[in-house]
Amino acid sequence: MENIVTTQDELYKATLGFVDNIKNPAAKEVIQYRQAMYWGLTEMQKNGIITTNLLVGIMQRLRSTTENIRQNPGTKLANPANHAVVYTPPEGEGIIREKLAALEKFMNDDSYSALDPLIKMALIHYQFEAIHPFSDGNGRAGRILNVLYLVNKNLIGLPILYLSYYIIQNKADYYRLLKEVTEKQKWNEWVTYIVKGVGETADMTLKKISAILLLKASSEDLLKQALKSSYSKELVDLLFSFPYIKVKVLEEHNIAKRQTASEYLKKIAGVGLLTPLKIGTETYYINHQLMSLLSK
Predict the structure, then answer these.
(1) Which of 47, 163, 194, 289 is the most exposed place for a label (fewest CB within 10 A)?
(2) In the predicted model, what is the mean pLDDT of residues 244-252?
(3) Do 149 and 13 share a domain, yes or no?
């Protein structure tokens, strides 16, 4: 949505602790998105609610900033093609905080029992984007809010349902329907769009998870052949948690000490499940079959 483009190679290296060495700024933004989301999840689970301060914290981590609620006057959202103003969000920190307080109450008030949580999520997403509380990062924060709300309402156990792909594939409808809610109160069409997106995304996610589990199961015989008595479920889980892996990861997860961990990875590479790649002084081992599934 924000034209953030990166490569999987850069992202997988970054997940192993090399964020500062990533040359592509977009890759850093994606990692920051991940960090902001999991920070938000942890904070939400402490007290069981989604708050204005939580949303501010997510935005600050998305952008590596200390900024808070938008204060600059004259904010207008324009069509990038012709620069025509399509929406003017509310102005003034006091007004914005009032609207966020009302949204916070709506999100955490279970007295709206007649509303299905998916429908309520669609209403919350529209209202958050309409308030447009930050000078930047509203779209990303809004999509994190979606998944955190689903976790909060126990519809998913982990934040693994990402609507971004669906929204990008249907971007014109996304902006058109937001505008039509504002101008024509067309809530039904907007809610239908979001609920359909959740359904399609859930189906895609379940298929991907099933494919990963099938690959993991089909790899177990080769892993047993390679590791023999050293085979462990914990090591297999680790190999399918990181498309890129290195010796230090095995050490950090108490699988083995450095020399033994290095031997394990070499043996697994020997049966074709991992491919070694030397980068500087570090050797990474790539699970290409897992990467292929994640890329689809």
Answers:
(1) 47
(2) 93
(3) yes
Q: Is the pLDDT of residue 227 over 60?
A: yes
Per-residue pLDDT tens over the stretch 25-82: 777 788 889 899 999 999 999 999 999 999 999 999 999 999 999 998 889 988 777 8
The boundaries of the domain holding residue 64 are: 8-161
Residue 60 domain-assigned (yes or no): yes
Query: Is 0.90 topped by the overall pTM?
Result: no
CATH number at residue 289: 1.10.10.10
Domain co-membership, 67 together with 138: yes
Asked whether 246 and 283 are in contact (CB, 8 A), the reply is yes
In the prediction, which pLDDT does 83 show?
A: 82
- So what's the pLDDT on residue 22? 61
Q: Cα–Cα distance between 236 and 219 in angstroms, integer?
A: 9
